[in-house]
Amino acid sequence: MDEDGEKHVLTKRSSFPESSDKRFGDEGDWVRRNLPESLFFQVLFNLPTKEMVKTSVVSPEWRHLWRCVPGLDLDEADFKQFHTLVSFIDSFLSINRESSLNKFKLRIYCNHDRDKETNNAHMARWISAIVEQNVQHVDLTWLPVEVPPILYLCESLVTLRLCGVVLANLEFMYLRLVKVLALEWVIFANELALEKLISGCLVLESLRFCKCSLDNVNVLRVRSQSLLSFNYYGPSSRDLHFKDLVVTIDAPKLGILKLSHQVTSSFIIKKSSSLVEANIKVKFNFCVGKKFNPYDLSKRKMILHFLVAISRVKNMTIAASTLEIIYDYSRCEPVPLFRNISLLRVEFYQDRWEILPFFLESCLNVKSLFVESDYYTKERTSILSRPRRLLSSLEYVKIKSSWDKLEMKLVSYFIENSPILKKVTLCLDGCSRKESVILRELLTIPRRSSSCQVVVL
């Protein structure tokens, strides 16, 4: 590593007295001698490269130790000049070209003053080098530079995270060891390029995909025989609102599903028997003026199949906006029963909490319920005033809310209709009402369960 490159990532050393310098050096040498070598280098490995370089001032023995760590973790912001970053990476990879590289993490941000061809050349050179060094973990943020094809044939790669890069349409992608794949703000040549990448990861277990308006993907097809966890999210851009976005999932081993994208129109889950946990924040593109249409039979059929697919989960987090759609659907035909849900979390943000009891009637065995909200609209429904069935399995309820506007009606609903309820926890963070007033109101609520404990925090 050249001295100039090292200085740009090494902050100026503080002016300690000589005795202090010696003391810190002795302590550093003690750590070096007494820690197992594998553990010592693992500690350094988990530090950003900028922090690793700082360890060179601990003692003369530590001067070049950081160069032996099999990983780079660099941020463009740590360098005053881009050419210094380039020199730093080139030097490090050259010095370690005969060694294996465990990690290559690089964050470079968009700069329109740079030449696109030059950036692509840097990327191609570095990727070729790390592939030859049998890199295992790659994390690249570089807007918007094309990743060379050789990376998608890397036989040593285990985790791959790409952000802001460009993926060309390649005929063949083969990543036999990749278990974790994260794609955020990636621009694809077309939908087929993305599909090839996913299917080319033969032992893929975790997939994270962030949707963006420029990714050229209207239909996302996730086909994997090994996938265990899928997280699909992204901003609800108005540009995407006018597209017919579809997500199709064919993953028989999928156990964890997270969906958070309001303007995706359709979610099709072909095999869901392994689903255990779901986090659902979708509106099927019923937003920006679009409303549920009971006469749209194809949309109703899609929603039904989606609800059936997630009905087997044990733990569920669901947004109130999704409950609104389910409630509208229930006016046309019955909602499938969620017999396996034991833990249910509901998040209300500028939505009506009164819609919750209707959904609970489909959750026959829910034991624990967590409700979180910070705002309530003035619009109200009469859903709580209707006769409701008993919540025969509910044991624990926790409500975290902006209590200034919360009515006691929801709390009363749980306490009055839960025969085996053990504990209700009410979080009063930011509440302007006196705790004594709230407690007096709680005491007036008749309890169906004699063992129910109400805790106010």
TrEMBL record:
Q: Which InterPro entries match?
A: F-box-like_dom_sf, F-box_dom, FBD, FBL13/AtMIF1-like, LRR_dom_sf, LRR_PRU1-like
Q: What name is this protein filed under?
A: FBD domain-containing protein
The protein's matches in SMART domains, at most eight in alphabetical order, are given as:
FBD
Q: Which PANTHER family match?
A: F-BOX/RNI SUPERFAMILY PROTEIN-RELATED, PROTEIN WITH RNI-LIKE_FBD-LIKE DOMAIN
Q: Show the segment(s) annotated as Disordered.
A: 1-24
Give the FBD domain ranges. Answer: 388-457
- Pfam families reported in the protein's UniProt record: F-box (PF00646), FBD (PF08387), LRR_2 (PF07723)
